[in-house]
Specification:
Length: 496
C-alpha cells in the first residue's frame, strides 16, 4: 500500500529527511506499520510515539537503519544530513496512527456495526449483555474489552481495556474476515485520551456512569480531565445512549455531535425501568422489572440490584437499534453471565459467596448497598488495593467497607512494587473512620479460607477487587492466581 493511501486526508507534511524538500507519498510503498522499534522490518512505516517512559522519536535514525520506508513524527528528530528518506510530520502521532492503521486494514469499522461503551462502572458487564442479546437475535458479534477479545470462537487475553489503535483495527479486520457483522467494545478514558479508538465513527456510543477514578500521576490529572476524556466518545459516534439518571450526563455530553437517547429510573428518560422486584434463591440473586418508553417489556436478570438493572437497560436500548424483539432480549438477559462480575461460586448451602471486580470506592459502595437490600444475616467483604496507585482509593475503600459491610477481611490485591502490609495499613486508615469490624490477613488464599470457614447461615460473602483477573502482580512479576482455583483448593483441603 502506498504512503499516500495510508495518510488519506490527514493533515501532514512529507519531506526528505530533515530537509524542506518535498516527497511524493504516492511513490512510497509501505509493507507494514510499527510503533515499537523492535518490530521494524524492511518497508515498514515507523510511527514515533511519545510514551510515559520512552519517546519513539529517539529511534528515528535506527528505524531507517533497520529498513523502514518512512517515519511519522510530531517533533524534530536527529537524522544524518545525507538522509533523504521520507519523514511525515503530523501534529499528534498517536492520532495519526489511528487513521493510518484504519487505512492499512481497509477501514474494517465501515463493514461492522460498531458499539463503544464508556463509563466508570458497568462497561464489561454491558458488553457481554449486548453480545448475548445480539447473538440471540442471529447476529455474529465480536467483543473487545477488559477481560478478552472475542473473534468467533477465538478468545484472546486482553492487555488493555482499549487496545492500541493498530491492534484495534487489526482485531476488527479479523472480525470482518470471521464473518462478524458487529463489534461491541469497552472504550476507556485512557483509550480516548490516547486516540486509540480514533480512525472511525461509532454507530452507537454508550455512557454508563462516572465517579472519580483513574486519577493520578500516570492517569488523569483531575476529575474534570477524566470527564472530558469520557465525553470525547460523543464527538465520535452517530447515536449516544446515556444513563439519564447520572448527575454528570450533561457534562459528559457537552459539545456532543450525536443524537442522544437516555435510560434510567427517573421520569423523562427514553427507556425507563419500573416495577422492580428482588429475587433471592439459593445461590442466585436477581431482579424482575418492566420497561416503558421506547420499548415496553418484562425482564428478569440473574444479577442483583439496581446497578444490574442499569446495565440491562443499556443493553436493551442497544438491542432496540438492531431490531431485536422483546422476547429475544428477555431470553438473552436470563442467560448472560460475565466472569468476575457478581459471579456466584457455590461453596455452601448455608451462605452465598461471590467474586466481583469492584476495585474502587464507588463500585464497592454500589455493590455492598445493593447486597444489603437482600437482607443477609451478615455482609462480609474481603478486598485489598493495588500498589503504585492513589492512596486516596485505599482510604475510601476502607471507609466504604467499614460503613456498609458487617465484617471486613483486609488482604492483598496486586501490590506491584509496594509492600502489601503498607497498603493494608492505608486501607485500615479509612476503616478506622468507621465502627466497622475487621481482620487483616495479608495472604489472599488464607483470607478466603478464613471467610469460608467462618461463613454463617444467611451470610453473603463478597471477594472484591480481583474479579476476572487470574494473576497477582508482585515486584514486576505476574504470578498465576485465580480465586476460583483458590476456592476449589480450600474446599478440597477441608475434605482431608
Amino acid at each position: 500500500m502506498t504512503l499516500e493511501k495510508l495518510l488519506g486526508e490527514l493533515k501532514c507534511e512529507v519531506t526528505a529527511g530533515n530537509s524542506k524538500e518535498k516527497v511524493n507519498p504516492s511513490e512510497i510503498e509501505i509493507r507494514d506499520i510499527a510503533n515499537d522499534n523492535r518490530k521494524i522490518d524492511d518497508g515498514s512505516l515507523f510511527i514515533c510515539i511519545i510514551g510515559a517512559n520512552f519517546d519513539g522519536h529517539s529511534c528515528a535514525a535506527e528505524a531507517f537503519d533497520k529498513g523502514a520506508a518512512a517515519i511519522v513524527i510530531q517533533h524534530d528528530v536527529e537524522l544524518p544530513d545525507d538522509c533523504k528518506k521520507p519523514v511525515v510530520r503530523v501534529e499528534d502521532t498517536r492520532y495519526a496512527m489511528a487513521f493510518i492503521s484504519a487505512a492499512f486494514f481497509d477501514h474494517p469499522a465501515s463493514k461492522l456495526k460498531t458499539i463503544g461503551i464508556t463509563g466508570t462502572k458497568g462497561k464489561t458487564t454491558t458488553t457481554y449483555l449486548i453480545k448475548s442479546m445480539l447473538e440471540n437475535a442471529g447476529h455474529k458479534v465480536g467483543l473487545i474489552g477488559t477481560i478478552e477479545v472475542i473473534i468467533g470462537d477465538e478468545h484472546i487475553h486482553a492487555e488493555n481495556t482499549t487496545p492500541e489503535s493498530y491492534n484495534l483495527q487489526e482485531y476488527m479486520a479479523r472480525m470482518v474476515e470471521a464473518g462478524c457483522d458487529s463489534v461491541v467494545m469497552e472504550v476507556s478514558s485512557q483509550g480516548l485520551m490516547l486516540h486509540r479508538s480514533q480512525g472511525f465513527t461509532f454507530d452507537l456510543g454508550i455512557f454508563t456512569n462516572i465517579e472519580p477514578d483513574h486519577i493520578g500521576p500516570n492517569e488523569h490529572k483531575d476529575f474534570e480531565d477524566y470527564m472530558h476524556c469520557k465525553g470525547l466518545l460523543f464527538k465520535q459516534c452517530r447515536v449516544g445512549i446515556c444513563n439519564g439518571d447520572d448527575v454528570h450526563t450533561e457534562d459528559i455530553l457537552e459539545g456532543h455531535t450525536c443524537e442522544v437517547e437516555t435510560y434510567g429510573f427517573n421520569k423523562g428518560v427514553d427507556i425507563r425501568a419500573v416495577n422492580l422486584a428482588y429475587i433471592r434463591k439459593p445461590g442466585n440473586l436477581g431482579v424482575f422489572f418492566d420497561t416503558e418508553g421506547l420499548i415496553n417489556m418484562h425482564a428478569e436478570i440473574t444479577n442483583p440490584g439496581k446497578f444490574s438493572v442499569y446495565n440491562a437497560l443499556c443493553a436493551i436500548a442497544v438491542a432496540r437499534h438492531f431490531g431485536c424483539t422483546p422476547d429475544e432480549i428477555a431470553s438473552a438477559l436470563k442467560i448472560a453471565k460475565v466472569k468476575g462480575r457478581i459471579e456466584m461460586v457455590k461453596v455452601s448451602d448455608d451462605f452465598t459467596l461471590m467474586i466481583d471486580y469492584a476495585h474502587n470506592a464507588m463500585a464497592l459502595k454500589s455493590l455492598l448497598t445493593t447486597l444489603r437490600d437482600y437482607r443477609p444475616n451478615r455482609l462480609i467483604c474481603l478486598f485489598g488495593c493495588g500498589g503504585n496507585r492513589s492512596k486516596l482509593r485505599r482510604y475510601e475503600m476502607g471507609e466504604v467497607s467499614g460503613k456498609y459491610a458487617d465484617f471486613t477481611i483486609i488482604t492483598s490485591d496486586n501490590p506491584r512494587f509496594e509492600e502489601p502490609l503498607d497498603i493494608i495499613a492505608d486501607i485500615e486508615t479509612g476503616m478506622k473512620k468507621t465502627d466497622g469490624k475487621y481482620i487483616k490477613i495479608a495472604d489472599r488464599k488464607e483470607a478466603i479460607a478464613y471467610a469460608i470457614d467462618h461463613g454463617e447461615q444467611g451470610d453473603i460473602i463478597v471477594l472484591a477487587g480481583k474479579g476476572h483477573e487470574d494473576y497477582q502482580e508482585i515486584k514486576g512479576v505476574k504470578y498465576h492466581m485465580d480465586e476460583r482455583e483458590l476456592i476449589r483448593e480450600i474446599l478440597e483441603e477441608r475434605k482431608h
